[in-house]
Amino acid sequence: MHTIVRFFQMGGFFMFPILLVLSAGIAISVERWIHLNRVKKENREMWEEVHPVLAQGDFDKARELVYEDNSAIAQMLSMGLARQGAVRRREDIEIAMEESLMEIIPQLEKRTPYLALLSNIATLFGLLGTIMGLITAFTAVASASPAEKAALLAASISEAMNCTAFGLMSAIPLLLIHARLSSTTGEIVGSLEMVSVKALNSISTFSKRAY
């Protein structure tokens, strides 16, 4: 712990902005991770319940199930099933579900892009802290005695590099988390598209039988 505190103190003023950026990134990461995992769980449970009903062609019961649920998959299916009760054209039902999907995707991606931005900001703060530290170091060395210059310069550069190191230590995990959350979001969107196609196929199959 003492080493960490000493490392932070030696980095100078710009260690504090980097710490704030890292804290904001962690807060966003935790919130997004919890939200996306909850969405995955709710979607899986809803699909396991409504899929057998759609496979049987009982669209009235399917409508009741999705209207009573608040999951993303229920929102999308409710739009399609509402059209299914009024029209028989596959294109109209597909457009309705695509419209709902366009509303859902921004909610899934919400705040995730900020992680990449915060990662870049942390890196830049680290570089800025290092540059400012080096400027201060060379200014101090200019007025020091020849015997002290080498030792003073080495110590000042070591302190300045701490800021870059902390910036990179903050940026790298944020980039990795951003990649993981983006991948999870892509999986959810892919599953919604798959459900949309399966629901459309079920509707088309039983509409043809009705004729």
TrEMBL record:
It is found in: Cell membrane; Membrane. The chain crosses the membrane at residues 12-34, 114-138, 150-177. The keyword Protein transport applies. InterPro entries: ExbB/TolQ_transport, MotA_ExbB_proton_chnl. Pfam families: MotA_ExbB (PF01618). Keywords: Cell membrane, Membrane, Protein transport, Transmembrane, Transmembrane helix, Transport. The keyword Membrane applies. Residues 70-194 form the MotA/TolQ/ExbB proton channel domain. It comes from the Bacteria. It is a multi-pass membrane protein. Belongs to the exbB/tolQ family. PANTHER family: BIOPOLYMER TRANSPORT PROTEIN EXBB (PTHR30625:SF15), PROTEIN TOLQ (PTHR30625). This is MotA/TolQ/ExbB proton channel family protein. It comes from Geomonas diazotrophica. The lineage of its organism: Bacteria, Pseudomonadati, Thermodesulfobacteriota, Desulfuromonadia, Geobacterales.
